[in-house]
Amino acid sequence: MLSTLIELERLKRLDRTGWVLRGFPNGTESVAAHSFGVSVTAMLLADELERQGVTVDVEKVLRISLLHDWAEARVGDMPRTATMYFGAEARKQAETAAFHDLTKPIEQVDARYASLYHEYEERNSLEARLVKAADVIDLLVEALALERAGGRGLDEFWEVAENPQLQLEGAAKQIVEDLLQTLLKARAEILSRPHC
Amino acid sequence: MLSTLIELERLKRLDRTGWVLRGFPNGTESVAAHSFGVSVTAMLLADELERQGVTVDVEKVLRISLLHDWAEARVGDMPRTATMYFGAEARKQAETAAFHDLTKPIEQVDARYASLYHEYEERNSLEARLVKAADVIDLLVEALALERAGGRGLDEFWEVAENPQLQLEGAAKQIVEDLLQTLLKARAEILSRPHC
Amino acid sequence: MLSTLIELERLKRLDRTGWVLRGFPNGTESVAAHSFGVSVTAMLLADELERQGVTVDVEKVLRISLLHDWAEARVGDMPRTATMYFGAEARKQAETAAFHDLTKPIEQVDARYASLYHEYEERNSLEARLVKAADVIDLLVEALALERAGGRGLDEFWEVAENPQLQLEGAAKQIVEDLLQTLLKARAEILSRPHC
Amino acid sequence: MLSTLIELERLKRLDRTGWVLRGFPNGTESVAAHSFGVSVTAMLLADELERQGVTVDVEKVLRISLLHDWAEARVGDMPRTATMYFGAEARKQAETAAFHDLTKPIEQVDARYASLYHEYEERNSLEARLVKAADVIDLLVEALALERAGGRGLDEFWEVAENPQLQLEGAAKQIVEDLLQTLLKARAEILSRPHC
Amino acid sequence: MLSTLIELERLKRLDRTGWVLRGFPNGTESVAAHSFGVSVTAMLLADELERQGVTVDVEKVLRISLLHDWAEARVGDMPRTATMYFGAEARKQAETAAFHDLTKPIEQVDARYASLYHEYEERNSLEARLVKAADVIDLLVEALALERAGGRGLDEFWEVAENPQLQLEGAAKQIVEDLLQTLLKARAEILSRPHC
Amino acid sequence: MLSTLIELERLKRLDRTGWVLRGFPNGTESVAAHSFGVSVTAMLLADELERQGVTVDVEKVLRISLLHDWAEARVGDMPRTATMYFGAEARKQAETAAFHDLTKPIEQVDARYASLYHEYEERNSLEARLVKAADVIDLLVEALALERAGGRGLDEFWEVAENPQLQLEGAAKQIVEDLLQTLLKARAEILSRPHC
Q1: Does F189 touch chain D (CB under 8 A)?
Q2: Does pLDDT of F162 surpass 90?
Q3: What is the distance in angstroms between the CA of the first residue and the CA of the last residue of chain C?
Q4: With an 8 Å Cβ cutoff, are D94 and A77 in contact?
Q5: CB–CB of A114/A100 below 8 Å?
Q6: Residue B27: which of D25, D147, D155 has the nearest Cβ?
Q7: What is the per-residue pLDDT for D195?
């Protein structure tokens, strides 16, 4: 178990390249910090969904949130353009292989982790899609924080909020879209201040 | 929900003061990155425990792991010496109050979160004690990473590994102590290298 | 004497949490750097006051400036919200106790330091109040520098400049208020630039 | 031309992941800083070679040195393990495609750049192999600097110095191996100091 | 050769003080990263010039670009105001002496390097003047990146773009001025965005 | 007064180049943080001296400590080697001129500051020499902190502790030398630990 933990510890220092490539300083956000944000967001989303009467496997939501970026400890945090050049399929395969090798030392449970990882990659359950929604929301919450502190040049990240393609339906869709709208409004307010 | 997420985002940048006060550079580890490490560690511990036939409420383990440090978004990451001066009881009260205010905007589920937070503070369940064990283990995994990279002066953190007081029993106790022993051995190996 | 100096050295790396919690990068300003700014500001204020014929104990002003944040080496740089939860009185007591322990090794002069610290905490002399004014001014000079470099989201810090409650009178009041007005004007100029 | 320069500017902030994944702080070395080191090293190697009577196309050496890492502005600085999962061939193809797109805006000379990039990837000239040698040497000079400052855990990087496979011959081989031996000796000296 | 490389490695960490003194965080740009930017820019400028039929010694351009800031490894990155107090002549002499000492260990080629350095200092060739132009352009490309990310307060750097005094003529003058105009336009576009 | 404060604020971010050039990360210590350390050290030294019956003008000691590095806001933190190339005399003149211009806006007291600065530069009083001793001691306290955290390669800084040439006499000499010996002992203890 320790060898896996030691490798995952590296995510605490690994920069999310998106900010760095847009002119923000090193250390703006680590992959581990982002994974924390995704997990917390997913938990709140799932709880709100349950409150509205929809059944969600919250344990699964949290497990997927926590492990969805583990492969980056071996593959790095590839910028979006990298995917373009490798192809989404090759990237998925490489990350899946990295994930498997990383979890191999946790024998007897590794198959379960692999299955959760696969579920996320395929977005083939409500839980997986909720985590993807949380991934997007956490990105925008971070963008909002940077913009509040004066950061600019992040418009492209916000486009997804206008037209999220998260394959959600019913209450889940509503909750996520409401949250995205609140985010857009919070952003508009920040940017419209006399001294934005 | 957004106001809570915005506050929690601050944990991504909040330094764990322990490293900074011991001469390590700013940005060594954020509270959010640590919370991620604790959550992942707790998940692996719980899964191993289940594998050995012990029933654990993994969802609860993950919920507690994710929320146990939220109060720091308002109270800061207090160094150990601070607790000495405020008193453990006052600190617990202040953090509990901060936690409540932070989760107040997530109406209807906030009571549940408060209860989980209370459970952790009181260590009155296997799940709460597992998270505390994960908290200690993640600290040592980080210390190990820093020492592998040449960092020194962290001996006091390792003392807990020799004599953990985690109120665990049976399989849980065994798993955690085995992991701590493996950590101590990994450390000894690093420090005994010809050019430590 | 050395043990005290070693502890105070920690202030060189301890982040002022105010900036970090508002989205600025780690390392924006250390407590030691702020203490330097306060001391320099207090010296200039005191000299201007003396020039206008008011008697000030400048040595005392400088001593108080230099030592007023020492307790943070043990208690950390608590965010404003932390004070809310602990209560101003408890915070004062904790910091005073930390200050005493920190200065205990400098026997025979520690009582004098304790008395200066107490004087600052109580604001019961012109000198103590001048240091508090310098504390506010240095905060705003730093905020101004961050805003000049594009930083935003610091409005709340500026509110104090509009309505400082520093218990100063006569020439001291005039000098400080003039400086605050000049700061506000410098800020307005920065924010009104075509490309603020 | 400007769009290419703007993209390459990103390399100034992009961390070399190798250090970060081994526990060193963000900002330890940027890709741009490394490229500078490689270019300077390659220039000195080429000049020494010429001094010994071997003809080298120094202009080509410098061009290759400067451009050999440009693709990372789009693909990121992939850790060694990433290559394992994508396959060396896929990585080469992705980086080549990224390089082409990046240089497309510099019409009329882009073909020439593509050819130099290809030459480096194939190591099919003395000049290309010299740059590869410089790449290795700059890595070790950086490792040496980190170790001199107390950094540890970099042994694996030094293995290449013992058995470099750089396809060099004659004087070039001799010069590079001598330099690697001097590096190893400098390292041994650092590590053997009483207080290494 | 190694001792020179070891000293030059220091440029990878040496901050360009211009940004730091204007309120940007430490680590914004290293001297080595800037030298890389200058070299790449100079290469593109020279290639465009050749394409237009002007003969340029590109090898010389690249050599000068790479070595023009080496003296800073011993003298530091002096802010503009420092030159004012030391006098431009004294600064040139000090840097030249530092450059000589730094390259002394690379016997037999050091005279050639000294001559290139002198050529740059005197701007007495097209190649030297092209590198100076690249030095200015790289500064503005970095400023643009910082402004795109929300940075402000850099107006004074842009003044040079309006009135470059680079002693260039003919095609070289045209190419550089066109590039500066494109930079100014790119900047204007950034600053005119609704939420600059 | 504000323009002077704004310029001095820059010292909060200006790196002490000594650490950076020796392989430590940016942000290790700012000039402002060092000035704070010097001021505090000087205050403790002066108080101990007074306790032993020697008369010291503590106000003057503190004033000199606070202002002795102001010139660096305009001249930068020059590495030791820089002084070699400019000459100690030229450096002193440049820094003195920078100091004068920096304090010119604080009319009517600037002459007094100039006189204190001159006194420090000439070391022609007990107070000036005490500040110089504090400057050395603060450097070593910082070095000690870095070494405790695993930093190495700082031996040359410690040589001064063996043979300080601080022109002190009597009790002052004794106090400073005792403190330096305690520092050397503390260092020896750190370096002799089993896992230094």
Answers
A1: no
A2: no
A3: 48
A4: no
A5: yes
A6: D25
A7: 65
Whether residue A194 lies within 8 A of chain E, CB to CB, comes out as no
Structure tokens at B91: 């600190």
Task: Check if the beta carbon of residue F69 is closer than 8 Å to that of residue F98.
Answer: no
CB contact under 8 A, E82 and F97: no
Outline where E52-166 has alpha helix (H): 58-67, 72-75, 80-86, 88-103, 110-122, 126-148, 155-162
Angstrom distance (rounded) from CA D179 to CA D167: 16
- For tokens 């323009």, name the residue: F3
- Give the closest-approach CA distance of D85 to chain E in angstroms: 30
D168 interfaces chain E, CB cutoff of 8 Å: no
Are E52 and E175 in contact by the 8 Å Cβ rule? The answer is yes
Does the CB of C151 have a partner CB in chain B at under 8 Å?
A: no
Whether this model's pTM surpasses 0.90: yes
Mutate to test the interface with E, among F8, F12, F77, F85 (most CBs of E within 10 A): F85
Q: Does C123 touch chain E (CB under 8 A)?
A: no
**Mean pLDDT on E54-59:** 98
Over the stretch A48-78, which tens digit does the pLDDT of each residue have?
A: 999 999 999 999 999 999 999 999 999 999 9
Provide φ and ψ at D53, rounded to 5°. Answer: 95, 5
- The model's pLDDT over C18-70, given as tens digits with 9 standing for 90+, comes to 999 999 999 999 999 999 999 999 999 999 999 999 999 999 999 999 999 99
Residues within 8 A of F (CB atoms), C 55-94 only: 58-59, 62-63, 66-67
H or E element: which one contains A93? helix A88-103
Q: How confident is the model at residue E20 (pLDDT cuts 50, 70, 90)?
A: very high
Chains with 3+ CB–CB pairs under 8 A to A are B, C, D, E
DSSP state of E15: B
F67 contacts F114 by C-beta, under 8 angstroms: no
User: What CA–CA distance (Å, rounded) separates C44 from C188?
Assistant: 24
How many whole angstroms separate alpha carbon C119 and alpha carbon A97? 65
Q: Is B27 on the interface with D (CB under 8 A)?
A: yes
Interface contact F151, partner B, CB < 8 A: yes
Question: For residues E57 and E116, is the Cβ–Cβ distance under 8 A?
Answer: no
CA of A11 vs chain E CAs: smallest distance (Å)? 21
| Pairwise CA distance, residues C99 & C109, whole Å | 13
**Percentage of chain C modeled with pLDDT above 90:** 93
Task: Please report the pLDDT score of residue C108 as a whole number.
Answer: 85
Identify the pLDDT of residue B76: 97
Round to whole Å and give the CA distance between E11 and E35: 9
